[in-house]
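The instructor's notes for this session suggest beginning with a concrete chain rather than abstract definitions. Hand out the sequence below and ask the class to guess, before any prediction is shown, which regions might be ordered.
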Amino acid sequence: TTSLGLSGYAVAGVSGLDNATTFATAKGAATTMTYTVTGAGFSGANAISVTVNLNGVNDLAGLVEAINAGITGAAQGTTAAATAFKNAAISAQMNSAGTSFELVSTGAAFAVQDNGAAGAARNFLGTTAIDQVKVAGGLEGKTISWAGDIADGETQVVTLSTVDEGGTMHK
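After discussion, reveal the predicted structure:
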């Protein structure tokens, strides 16, 4: 198992992609989509860019196949980052309900970020202009703020956790 007792890591795409209209709306007129994957050994300037060819992709099964082809292509590089990405063994699969896809890895924590613009990657991943990152394990990168006062004698506890480049969880 991995940290927190998980048996693997997953990032879920937006739900409802099994519906032809929802799928077509998410895809729009896009012929490609690009997203960035980060993890131990492939982060910062060495993050991996995955480009997915959407030509001829008209359903969820085709999307999963196209994402896997994009992942395979991105893992073919000769850099240490490409090797670390390949070794993370991230792949796409349909979720158990058959309504969306998941990017999964059985042994490596990772995060996925859309390309920062409205389009297919954002639509399929379910990200927004404010929340562009999804972290495997169901967590998402968030900005938090506090707009109230804490009364005398009360305390507020905030715990932040992160995974370093070596894959170690820190609190």
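Then share the key points. The chain has a mean pLDDT of 84. The chain has four helices and ten strands.
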